[in-house]
Amino acid sequence: MKPPKQERAIRTRAAILHAAAEAFAEAGFAGASVAAISRRAGLTLGALYFHFPNKEALAREIVHQQVARVRPPLESEGLQRAIDVTLTWAVSVLEDPVLLAGARLVLDQEAFAGGSQNSHQQWAGVLTKDLQAAEDRGELVPDAAVAPWARVLVNACTGAQMQAQLATGRRDLPERVAEIWACVLPALARPESIAALDLSESRGRMPQ
CB under 8 Å to 42, separation ≥6 — which residues? Predict the structure, then answer.
């Protein structure tokens, strides 16, 4: 059991991050003020600054939480795992304010995150690991360049969410991500591996 004071601090920090995520998702990094975030969280500025020294720290924490908040509901490995991660992210963006804020903050990261801290590097690391597992399992074509392919997929998903926001408010993002994989897989994976993969949107949703 955590001491009551520690539990209150955890709840307060979570409330601040939730309020910051909503503010960043609505107004972007430049448009969201610390004062507005504190009001949204129902806290004084002093209470907010006790947990986060500035707006940059809030934005960095939201970006750092992106990967941990994407948990595919189905067990998988290798290529299917990489697909499931991207589909789960695409489905969850509209349901999780922290992920939605991360999507909105993509173009603002130079204001608060360094090269090794940004979301592109984080997601490229995740997909590199999954693609390396796929290579070890014999799923990829010979001499597949795992790290560059991971970067290509992250770039494609980033562009997809931007275009989906303009076209449909991101409602068709899972379909766009599945389309990316359908185009990429013939160049990346062995035909027999592709035949066993599932690109359906349901891979990213919790079973009902």
Answer: 15
